[in-house]
Design a protein that fits this description.
Layout: H1 5-8, H2 17-25, H3 44-61, H4 74-77, E1 89-93, H5 101-107, E2 112-117, H6 120-131, H7 138-141, E3 142-146, H8 161-166, E4 201-207, H9 218-228, E5 229-240, H10 245-249, E6 255-257, E7 260-262, E8 268-270, H11 274-284, E9 287-300, E10 305-317
Parallel strand pairs: 1-2, 1-4, 2-3, 4-5
Antiparallel strand pairs: 5-10, 6-7, 7-8, 9-10
Helix pairs in contact: 3-6, 9-11
């Protein structure tokens, strides 16, 4: 598989994270980011509704243009996707406008991608983009459905109770008997003809999704991802890291928790340390294969500014 110039030029060690940490924490103007925070009580049902509405508005506002870029680095950072077996199943959690699903479908002609998001606006946009891409057999290989992974377990057609308990998988089952339309949490729980389920998935991608989930619901989301993976399956994680430039832009009144912020449009963002990410995944039962900071300098030539981006890269496995 040939890599584009964008892929070959990708790098992730432009500066040292410890050096950045020392610089940021010694700046008095940024001290409010590190103050203790007392969490407020949460009302679950209303907060779930607000989250999905906020993301619907967000995706409606960014429905045109190039706000999201296709993540062409995926096969380099997660080479298992490039070398996976034919008809492997990938579950993309929090698919947004398909910036992760599209390069996976384009890069592997036989891979199957199930993509969920809590925003119906995002799913409509993702479906439009995927179907306009001329990807091979896209109508059979891309299966979007509406789901909030932080609110409830995944639907039983992904993996039923029987298959989950026995850890057995049904191989190479296509979803030809499922409706192509975007569906909500109430009408996606069964197929028309399937005797059981698709037997779980081989890979889960959690790319810039978990940071948008309220901190007190993250463990629910990670546990749900663990439950639908086949034994030995891999979860690929990438999200905002501690001291990323976007964290430092938040004002004191935008803090809603420790390292947790809310934008004016109601969407959230959390910034992970390696320890906070590790605790979440290991507590759910995963084994850690890779976990590190990616520190990238990007230059805004129009504004003549250098921006220091920090992301957390992780690879976790469900035990055999």
């Amino acid at each position: 598989m040939m890599m584009s110039s964008e892929e070959t030029e990708y790098h992730s060690k432009d500066f040292g994270w410890e050096e950045l940490k020392e610089q940021i924490e010694s700046d008095p103007a940024l001290g409010y980011h590190f103050l203790p925070y007392t969490h407020q009580s949460f009302s679950s049902s209303s907060s779930l509704e607000i989250d999905s509405q906020s993301w619907n508005r967000f995706h409606a506002r960014h429905s045109t243009g190039k706000f999201f870029k296709e993540r062409r680095y995926l096969f380099k950072e997660f080479p298992e996707l490039a070398s996976c077996e034919e008809y492997s199943k990938v579950l993309e959690v929090g698919c947004g406008n398909a910036s992760t699903a599209l390069p996976i479908l384009r890069g592997k002609e036989n891979i199957l991608v199930y993509a969920c998001d809590c925003s119906t606006e995002a799913l409509e946009r993702a479906t439009e983009i995927i179907y306009a891409s001329n990807v091979v057999s896209v109508e059979r290989r891309f299966r979007p459905f509406c789901w909030d992974v932080s609110a409830c377990s995944f639907p039983k057609w992904l993996i039923c109770d029987s298959c989950h308990e026995t850890s057995r998988s049904k191989q190479n089952i296509f979803l030809s008997d499922f409706d192509n339309n975007v569906r909500d949490c109430t009408d996606v729980t069964s197929s028309k003809e399937s005797d059981c389920c698709i037997g779980g998935v081989d890979y889960v991608t959690l790319i810039f999704t978990l940071s948008a989930v309220p901190l007190h619901r993250m463990s629910t989301a990670v546990a749900a991802c663990f439950s639908v993976l086949k034994p030995g399956g891999l979860l690929f994680f990438r999200d905002y890291g501690l001291y990323d430039m976007t964290m430092l832009r938040f004002e004191p009144d935008q803090r809603v928790g420790f390292r947790e912020y809310k934008r004016s449009d109601g969407t959230r963002s959390y910034f992970f340390s390696l320890d906070s990410a590790r605790d979440l995944f290991l507590s759910a039962g995963f084994m850690e294969l890779e976990l590190e900071y990616c520190c990238v300098k990007s230059v805004n030539r129009r504004k003549q500014k250098t921006m220091r981006r920090v992301w957390v890269h992780g690879k976790f496995q469900k035990p055999m």
